[in-house]
Design brief:
Blueprint lengths: L5 E6 L14 E4 L2 E4 L11 E8 H8 L6 H7 L1
Parallel strand pairs: 1-3
Antiparallel strand pairs: 1-4, 2-3
Length: about 80
């Protein structure tokens, strides 16, 4: 786990359902990293403090799979 991957807040707005079509999942909220499964540029966030969660764990929990560079290369 990397220090950069630690997320302090998660958006729990019901209308912010997980999706991969919008790439911006991280932003800063109250001087900490914050994760929105939909899009950090959207309006209507409901931020819940989650402590120091790992961003990859949050993505997996939301069902968002992000391929790493070496995984993309192996798939092509």
């Amino acid at each position: 786990m990397s220090f950069v991957n630690l997320v302090g807040f998660e958006c729990v707005a019901p209308e912010h359902q997980p999706g991969t079509g919008r790439p911006d999942k991280l932003t800063i909220h109250e001087r900490q990293w914050a994760f929105c499964p939909y899009d950090t540029h959207a309006d209507g966030h409901v931020w819940k403090q989650v402590g120091d969660d790992d961003v990859e764990d949050l993505q997996r929990r939301m069902g968002i799979a992000i391929a790493r560079t070496n995984e993309r290369a192996a798939a092509s």
